[in-house]
Design a protein that fits this description.
There is one protein chain. By secondary structure, the chain is an all-beta fold. Strand 4 and strand 5 form a beta hairpin. The strands form two sheets. Strands 2, 4, 5, 6, 9, 10 and 11 form a seven-stranded mixed beta sheet that branches. The protein has a four-stranded antiparallel beta sheet with strand order 1-3-8-7, with no helix packed on it.
Length: 114
């Protein structure tokens, strides 16, 4: 599976942005998919995940209610609403199984600044 994340950019607080993660490889649908981010000076964190073994989507508390993750056979998407300065980070998509993330897209930078 190959992943390519894109859609980042410079936005203002309160704006919305949609990230995409294009997937190639016919087995993509069999994997869990996650969105991660790494802010400057901080550890990488999992912020949203769609797991094949579970219903629903996991969201980290800081993005719950603002970010919406979706996926289809072509890839995964992260709709980010109500962006805050603290959402500034490099965002990554990944595919794997049970918290073993085997495949990673390159990061896409999201900068939220007034």
């Amino acid at each position: 599976v190959q992943l390519q994340a894109y859609g980042g950019g410079l936005v203002h607080p309160g704006d919305s942005l949609r990230l995409s993660c294009a997937a190639s490889g016919r087995n993509f649908r069999n994997y869990d998919v996650g969105w991660f981010r790494q802010a400057p000076g901080k550890d990488q964190e999992l912020i949203a995940a769609n797991r094949r073994s579970a219903s629903g989507t996991y969201y980290e508390d800081s993005v719950k209610g603002r970010f919406i993750m979706s996926r289809d056979n072509a890839g995964a998407y992260l709709r980010m609403n109500g962006l805050k300065v603290e959402d500034t980070a490099v965002y990554y998509c990944a595919a794997g199984d049970r918290n073993n993330w085997y495949y990673w897209g390159q990061g896409t930078l999201v900068t939220v600044s007034s």
